[in-house]
Amino acid sequence: MDLLSSVLSSLKVESTSISRWTMSAPWGVDVNNFNLGYCLSVVSGQCWVQIRDSSSTKSPATIQLQTGDSVIAPRGANLAILSGPDSETILLDALPWHGDTFQGLSSSIQPSSAMQVNWGGGGPETQLLGVAFTFQNHQNNFLLSSFPEYFILKQRESNFLQLIHPAIQFFIDDNSPGYFAVATQFSELIIMGSLRAYILSNEISSVGVLKGMKNKSVAKVLTAIHQAPQHNWTLPELAVEANISRSVLSKRFPQCVGVPPIDYLNRWRIHLAAEKLINSKASLDFIIKSLGFETDRTFRRLFKQYKELSPSQYRKKFTRV
């Protein structure tokens, strides 16, 4: 498996809600304190995205979206979606939604239909498709934190979404049983495809694993770690993988990723351990040995350091089996 696939595969969608917005100008929606990931795609018409920053005294920045463009907030973001730069807004929860009553997103809630809204002042129409979602193992997820708070995908960067939209439109109008199962698969395709498109089409400036993937030698080290996390890698071994000296690796890797190589190895191992704890019935001893930890004590110390819970507490809180 290539490095990008490894990173994206580790971000598993846990719960999801699909929505269709039919809006007529003037209109404005304030997506405030919405602590879920979301993706909004313009199917027809146009709209504006306004970035709300309570810590700034400057006028909010606005970005115009045309048909085929999308805004994605992997961890949620304080944005407003508007028919025009100066449109007044109402809160997202105040919209006259119909469909299943929205009860939030968690693995225990499985909606039986999509959410829909038809609202606005009766002017030119814009249609949006929305996906709200949460990631499994999202707390203290160092991979997820590598993505920006939000990003814009233009139509030319996300042609795959144009292929998916007609299928989703058909699916929203189909009231047959099985909605949740199919919605989850559609949503995961949209989310992973959008994250992939962002990585492939943008220069990454923020320190993190995504920036490391853009550096040839650092990417080789990341690939080695992802392909064999159970191996007790040493700095000299990783330098050989990258075909650079230990001193260069020691400097370059933290500059790109934010932490030293062995620290990253431990973070990746703990991430995998957390997945195994909530997705399998494997014993803790088996998980520890399968990921190459030399002692139980070392594993427990690192797990508590990165996840802020003991392994047993984490399994009890987040288990799905």
**CATH superfamily caption of the largest domain:** Regulatory protein AraC
**Quick one: overall form?**
globular
What would you report as the Rg, rounded to the nearest angstrom?
Answer: 22 Å
CATH topology of the largest domain: Jelly Rolls
Give the overall average pLDDT.
Answer: 89
Structural class: alpha+beta
Could you state the order of secondary-structure elements as H and E?
Answer: HEEEEEEEEEEEHHHHHHHHHH
Kindly state the percentage of residues in helix: 40-55%
Report the CATH C-level class of the largest domain.
Mainly Beta
Q: Strand content of the residues, in percent?
A: 15-25%
Number of helices: 11
N- to C-terminal distance: 27 Å
Named CATH architecture of the largest domain? Sandwich
In terms of per-residue confidence, which ranges show pLDDT below 50 for 5 or more consecutive residues? Answer: none
Plain-language structure description:
The chain is an alpha+beta fold. The protein folds into 2 domains: 12-201, Regulatory protein AraC (Jelly Rolls, Sandwich), CATH 2.60.120; 209-318, Homeodomain-like (Arc Repressor Mutant, subunit A), CATH 1.10.10. Helix content is 40%, strand content 20%. It is built from 11 helices and 11 strands. The strands form 2 sheets. A 6-stranded mixed beta sheet has the order 9-1-10-3-6-11, covered by helices on one side. Helix 2 (159-173) packs antiparallel against helix 3, helix 5 crosses helix 6 and helix 8 crosses helix 10. The two termini are 27 Å apart.
